[in-house]
Amino acid sequence: MTTDLPEEVARMVGVRQYRQTGPLVVDVTTIRNACASVENGNPLYWDEQLATELAGSPVAPQAMVSAWTRPFHWTPDPSEPSLPLQVHFDLKEALGFPEAIMSSDELVFHEPVRVGDRLTSTQVLLSVSEEKTTAVGRGRFWNIAVEYRNQDDLLCCREVIAGFGYRRAA
Amino acid sequence: MAARGLLEVGSTLPPLRHEVTVTSVVLGALASRDWRPMHHDPGFARERNGVPDIFLNTPHQALWIERYLTDWFGPLARIGRLRFRMSRPVFPGEEMTIGATVTGVDTGQAGVAWVEVEIEVRAAGELSTAGTARIAIPAAEGDNPWSLTGDDWKP
Fold first, then answer.
1. Chain A residues close to B50, C-beta within 8 Å
2. Residue of A nearest to B25 (CA)
3. Domains, in order of start, for chain A
4. Average pLDDT over residues A39-60
5. Shortest Cα distance from B121 to chain A (angstroms)?
6. Local confidence band at B4 (pLDDT 50, 70, 90 cut-offs)
7. Which of A126, A132, B38, B59 could pair with B45 as two cysteines, CB 3.0-4.6 Å apart?
8. A162 contact partners, CB below 8 Å, separation of at least 6
9. CB within 8 Å: B66 and A62
10. How many angstroms away from the CA of A55 is the closest CA of chain B?
11. What DSSP string runs through A51-106?
């Protein structure tokens, strides 16, 4: 990792932040909406009896894990979080990058996410690169680890997301 | 589940093709509860991100890959690990093709076979996303990867 970081960014590295319990209880309707978006006919998500036989109870598609802790686009309570992956947006702000995109994702799955679960996520900044020039502009890559745990504090997934914050080329 | 003879290292899984539309991009963004405008607002995508159109979001790509893998390996398949790098956005109007090659089959653990695959997502013929996955499938009749817990689950 680079050493030319502003102090406020350097202080973020390795610190677990933003413990957020998702606004949604895991439910069949949201699961099937996600399945419909990719035309996923896996009976595990459409046949509750089969899901119970195979997995012990209805479960969610594994790649849906981040959906369960993303905030609503709007709520009447202004104190509610409004952005997912807040560390990503903190870095954009602190490093002065107007734009950012995601460049890679790693998901390691543990306990299945089950209908009726409510997940809580936390975020840790792992690293920030030196400035680099890419096709979209000049900026920095960063890696953020997100842990998703269920209401029994069992780890469901550990995700490492790489983002790239940048200024567009003139 | 896939025929066991097709699970040799080097074998390729049949590709999945999908014509990406504005609807499919927006459906995926909403279904994954990703409200960022570059996944539903073409003006934002062009003016702020400097790309020609809205594009598939990261969790939606993961959902497509999961669907591709479990289509092939069946409902008993349970993904342990999925890693992918996105080098080019996937835009409406492009044909997306997902393919995979088996790179490893580990039958050393009782009750489960761990299959490793390399994944490629191509859009409009260009490599868009490349990654790997590690998937647990039954090693024998009666095995069920979903029943593995604690130290027996080794993703």
1. 99, 136-137, 168
2. A37
3. 7-168 (3.10.129.10)
4. 98
5. 13
6. low
7. B38
8. A102, A103, A104, A105, A141, A142, A143, A144, B85
9. yes
10. 5
11. HHHHHSS-B--GGGGGGGGPPPS--S-TTS---SSHHHHHHHHHHT-SEEEEEEEE
How close B61 comes to chain A (CA, Å)? 9
Rounded distance between C-alpha atoms, residue A111 and residue A75, angstroms: 30
CB atoms within 10 A of CB B21: 12
Distances (CA, A) of A71 to A22, A162, B21: 7, 20, 26
**CA angle at residue A148 from B133 to B117, to 5 degrees?**
0
Residue A81 has pLDDT above 90, yes or no: no
Domains of chain B in start order, with CATH, are 7-152 (3.10.129.10)
User: Length of chain B, please?
Assistant: 155
* Residue among A37, A105, A106 whose CB faces B28 most closely: A37
Q: Please name the residues between 96 and 155 in chain B that touch chain A, using a CB distance below 8 Å.
A: 144, 146-147, 149, 153, 155
pLDDT at B2 over 60: no
**Helix, strand or coil for residue A108?**
strand
- Tell me the ipTM for this assembly: 0.94
- Ramachandran assignment for B104, one of left (phi > 0), alpha (psi -120 to 50 degrees), beta (any other): beta
DSSP B147: G
CB proximity list for A91: less than 8 A, separation 6 or greater:
A9, A12, A97, A100, A125, A128, A140, A142, A163, A165
CA-based nearest residue to B14, from B3, B28, B26, B25 = B3
Rounded mean pLDDT of chain A? 94
B131 close to B58: Cβ distance less than 8 angstroms: no
**Phi and psi angles of residue B140, each rounded to the nearest 5 degrees, phi first:** -150, 165
- Tell me A114's DSSP state: B
